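Check out a protein:
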Amino acid sequence: MIKFLTLLVLAFIAQQPTSNEPAVWAEPIPLFTDQIQEHYSGPATQYAAGHRGIDIKIAPNQTLKSPVAGRIAFADLVVDRMVVTIESEGKKLSFEPACTDLEVGDPIRAGQEFAWHCAPEADYQYHCESCVHFSARTKFGYLSPMYFYGTLSPSSLSA
């Protein structure tokens, strides 16, 4: 009888849909996928060159909306530009150059305006035309933010 119940439970579990797909994030600016100037390009090694995020064309002083609910984890100057980082469910999302009136620790809702594209220091050299760099990282390293918008296909080996 126990074997029968075990098989019944296993059959029920096997019928349940499973999904490893991430929740889709809110857009940082409207129609941002049309404004991407440079896509993520992962490095060959942890310390190698790469582009660990995406660059979104954005007007000066244009506001940014939080892709996720979380909290402000960092908001300060890094070398020659302001950086704002949101922490949510083990992920850190950073935007630069971006300024905010929020304080570290402040909660934030998905879709809430949290920052704006602000002017970097005078010696900052944009690597794209009037853009904000948007990166996502976990304890395992950087990921393309586009993964969380459902626009990337899984990697596969080809014959």
